[in-house]
Please model this.
Amino acid sequence: MSTSGILFAGFGGQGLLFSGKILATAGLIENREVSWLPSYGPEMRGGTANCSVRLSDEPIGSPIVSKPDILVAMNIPSYHKFISEVVPGGIVVTDSSLVKAHTDRMDIKRFEVEATKISQDEGLDGISNMILVGKLVKESGIISFNTLEKAVHKCVGEKKVHLLEYNIKAIKLGMSL
Amino acid sequence: MEEKVLMKGNEALAEGAIRAGCRHYFGYPITPQTEIAAYMSRRMPHVGGIFLQAESEIAAVNMVLGAASAGVRAMTSSSSPGISLKSEGISYLAGSDLPCVIVNIQRAGPGLGGIQPSQADYYLATKSPGHGDLHMLVFAPSTVQEMADLISHAFNKADEYRVPAMILGDGMLGQMMEPVILPAEREVKTSKPWAANGHQNKRPHNIINSLFLEADILENRILDRYKRYAVIEHNETRAENFMTDDAKILIIAYGASARIAKSALTAARKEGIAAGLLRPITLWPFPVKEINAAAENARDILTVELSMGQMVTDVKLAVQGRRPVHFFGRTGGMMPTPEDVLEEIRKIERNGSI
Model:
């Protein structure tokens, strides 16, 4: 697939933008064309927010991902909003601690990860998003773990170096599921 | 060579401005351009520059007038409603022959409108940035790379012609991240003998003014300025040609809509439709010659904008009825998908010239 559109959707504060940034940075490291676009509306403050990421081998026109190849849904409203938009054959990763919803769609690959619960059990509070990133990377093969690890190093700021290993641990955990 | 980094359009533009020698930024926050002000507030203290959050947009543009009068590279930025407020200052800047850069990261209007991307300030930027006979240079980036690059070009041209320049972006370009290679830091050596920066008893004092109560004197000043505008119109148009050589359907779009149009026409090509894109990079001066050259072999022209149709009037004026000019736009902050534009291209292909 020469172009992949990835959509992270959920509540503001769940780390959607950061998850997107990790993937976009990984794409940059692999010298691919990438774009990252947040929803920057009032929905950021508590409602549903989302983040569009494109990884491509061609120049990217629209950075808006309205028909995602990969959807990461971290709350129910986002799941309902976007599940019907996923392209046939697409991948859907949901945080099943928060999203308990059924779909009739048989033409997508759906993966349920109890990310919030697992993150609490494993002392990874607040970074359930990275568990889901690990899972999506494992199932889609969109980027290698090595690149992903480099991307995390790039994206975790100097002031937050102590969080590096937690992020890596969460990704590895997601990849093991 | 600089490393490729992932940056938001707003931040790349701000860093581009600093590297172009801008050390004076005055602003007032408004979505979706606030990252420019935030970035400037963080960076300016480290480069010996000034960041000042003004009490209003009007105050900010008048601070730019003061700084530009002293001969330094100064800029302000805002989004559509804030640019309306700056109109008065822009007119005074133009009337005082002051170079500076004003950034408009457009959002939907009219009124407070919305905060989603828009291109509905085209008329405001190119036709009537303020009262009186005046123009300002208007540059339209369409990638994060161009956000970083065009700002330095805008400062250079503003200085060269002593006119205000605008970067006309939109919420999508401001908010999105893309890989960018930041331009090298440049030393600015523009001589500004007209600047009011202290004569130290060595020269007569310079006056920066836009008030001329004698009509004949004012008319002469405007005529002189229009001679400069004519040089600008002759020398400074810029446009990108994308697959225009054999294009039967020529799309004309700038900024965010040009990106969407590019995806659409690439898909159209795969269906055997010969579509191409002429992307104006300068909106004033408008690339009339470039459009006519690209339209030479075209059967139809399609203008795509995030508005109810503003640039399309300039396209019609440019081709003077020699080609049918169609229009497709979304407004209010709605973004067309490449599929929407592709459908328009197909319609024109099917129906031929109407």
Q: What stands out?
A: Chain B has a mean pLDDT of 96. The interface with chain A takes residues 4-6, 31-32, 115-116, 171-172, 175-179, 259-264, 266, 335, 337-338 of chain B (CB under 8 Å). Residues 102 and 312 of chain B are 24 Å apart (CA to CA). Chain B is about 40% helix and 20% strand.
